[in-house]
Amino acid sequence: MTSLEHTAYENGRSGIGPIGFAGRALRVFYHAMKMRSDRAALQAMPDFLLKDMGIARSEIDHYTSMRSAASDTDGMDIRDGG
């Protein structure tokens, strides 16, 4: 084992290599599908329910965008997303 391989092994970084890449890609895909589902659910809500949550219909895309959402959204308050 070369010193470079040994260093990567000792660090225990699971993100290196094709398995780590596939895992990250699956997590991103799952997260994107969840955001799409959340966006559809919010769009289907009547305005009075959105108002009770403090969200305007025009803000739904902002709160369900990939860049403003936390990495783990289970149990997250929607207002914390951005």
Provide structural commentary.
With 82 residues, this protein is mainly alpha-helical. Helix content is 57%, strand content 0%. It is built from 4 helices and no strands. The chain has helices at 3-11, 18-44, 47-53, 60-63. The protein starts with a helix and ends in a 19-residue tail after the last helix. Residues 71-76 have low confidence and may be disordered.
In short:
With 82 residues, the protein is mostly helical. The protein is built from four helices and no strands.
Q: What is the SS-derived class?
A: mainly alpha
Principal-axes geometry comes out as elongated
How far the N terminus sits from the C terminus, by CA atoms, comes to: 46 Å
Rg, nearest Å:
19 Å
Number of H/I helices: 4
Specify the helix fraction band. Answer: 55-70%
What assembly state would you assign to the polypeptide chains in this entry? single chain
β-strand number: 0
The largest sheet, given as strand count, sense and whether it forms a barrel, is: none
Q: Mean pLDDT, rounded to whole units?
A: 75
The low-pLDDT segments are 71-76
Q: Strand-and-helix sequence, N→C? A: HHHH
Bin the strand percentage: under 5%
